[in-house]
Amino acid sequence: MSAQRKDDHVRLAIEQQHTRSGINEFDEVSFVHHALAGIDRPDVSLATAFAGISWQAPLYINAMTGGSVNTGVINRDLAIAARETGVPIASGSLNAYFKDPSCADTFRVLRQENPDGFVMANVNATASVDNARRGIDLLQADALQIHLNTAQETAMPEGDRSFASWVPQIEKIAAAVDVPVIVKEVGNGLSRETVLTLQNLGVRVADVSGRGGTDFARIENGRRELADYAFLHGWGQSTAACLLDAQGVGIPVLASGGVRNPLDAARALALGACAVGASGGFLRTLLDGGVPALVAQITTWLDQLTALQTMLGARTPADLTRCDLLIHGALRSFCADRGIETRRFAQRSSSLEALNEMTGSTR
Ligand code: FNR
After folding, report:
1. Residue 34, φ and ψ in degrees, nearest 5
2. What is the pLDDT of residue 277?
3. Measuring from atom 2 of ligand 1, which residue has the nearest CA?
4. Is the model's pLDDT at 202 over the cut of 90?
5. Cβ of 360: how many Cβ atoms within 10 Å?
6. Residue to probe by mutation, ligand 1, list 188, 207, 209, most atoms within 8 Å of CB
7. What is the pLDDT of residue 356?
8. Which residues are within 8 A (CB) of 20 and not within 5 positions of it... i.e. 6 or more apart?
9. Which of 16, 45, 88, 116 is the most buried (most CB within 10 A)?
10. How do residues 118-168 score in pLDDT, each as one tens digit?
């Protein structure tokens, strides 16, 4: 059952990649163009550091799979691409391994192919502390991801709808394991309230994984005989909305969910993300063109992100948070209703401050 579900997820996620609506709230975030803001490309670094973690670039392959023969092959290829490009990688949920240890190799391959890389083990919020430790050991993981997926479990034919234990369980795991704990959604987003709760539970990092890309309510509905949960398609907040919502929270935030290209990555970093993850899009590239295609895509993204930072005058990814941003459309309404001041995003660059000093403007 579990192995079949893993294969279904891959098939339906890829189907979604081919029929994507194209609606993505990253399109409602634009940079103010300052024609003299540019710097020299050699002065740009992609390095990012947060919660004691240091990555050479702010991009990672987010959680996907493992647990069946087919997904073991996918994990092997993802791991090779991660190794060749130096980006971090997460496993899919290790629940399949806890239920049936005979599929261990389909996950362990992530470490075997990528011995020196940054690998994250992924569990659900009902995992016991012992199982969380087993998952970390299996992958010799550098961090632990715990996923939150109420919309997925709700639409999943065989879903588990007991959510009340998640909060105490996350707190127990966060206190017990030796690696940083990252709590993530699976494409429906984390609200500010959720991120603040996670912070109080001792979670080190939140990955908002919002709406805009892979839609797990749609995937699970596609596995239902009657497909009677179509009303849950598109549930949740977009990744851009989540990043705006999480401004000023006390823990580092990562961005995933519907990141389509290097400009979306730059937008997410400018909205405060410490790094940006992608899943469905990378999987599609891998299945269409194999490891060389995925390596080429990641290499291009890193090159083009460097180019964007150069044009925008951002020596580091964190410097993008000083670039001026305009927030449009539905995202602007979201901000108005959630009490998020959009004007300050449009007027935050040091060049504007300097300009104000020069001209005596008090704006
Ligand atoms: C996922 N995702 C996921 N997340 C998680 O925490 N554990 C998991 O086991 C899985 N499994 C999984 C399978 C497949 C085939 C896909 C495409 C995705 C969710 C993933 O990590 C991410 O949060 C969402 O997919 C949103 O990102 P994208 O796909 O829009 O870039």
Report:
1. -110, 110
2. 98
3. 64
4. yes
5. 6
6. 209
7. 58
8. 213
9. 88
10. 999 999 999 999 999 999 999 999 999 999 999 999 999 999 999 999 999
Task: Locate the DSSP E strands across the chain.
Answer: 29-31, 48-50, 53-55, 59-61, 89-93, 119-124, 143-147, 181-184, 205-207, 253-256, 276-278, 325-327
Rounded to an integer, what distance in angstroms lies between the CA atom of residue 308 and that of residue 317?
Answer: 10
What is residue 1's predicted lDDT score, i.e. its pLDDT? 72
Give the integer Cα–Cα distance in Å for 93 and 71: 12
Q: Residue 360: is its pLDDT beyond 80?
A: no
3-state secondary structure 189-231: CCCHHHHHHHHHCCCCEEECCCECCCCHHHHHHHCCCCCCCHH
At 152, list the tokens.
Answer: 């997925």
Which atom in ligand 1 lies closest to the alpha carbon of residue 258?
30
Q: Please say if the pLDDT value at position 355 is more than 80.
A: no
**Of ligand 1's atoms, which has the minimum distance to the CA of residue 283?**
17
CA of 343 to the centre of ligand 1 (A): 33
Q: From CA 206, how far away is CA 199, in angstroms rounded?
A: 8
Alpha-carbon distance 239 to 256, whole Å?
A: 7
Is the beta carbon of 271 within 6 A of some atom in ligand 1?
A: no
pLDDT in tens, 169-185: 999 999 999 999 999 99
Token reading at 91: 């496993």
Q: Is the dihedral of CA 78, 80, 81, 82 positive or negative?
A: positive
**Ligand 1 midpoint to CA 259 (Å):** 12
CATH topology classification for 2-19+34-359: TIM Barrel (3.20.20)
pLDDT of residue 83: 98
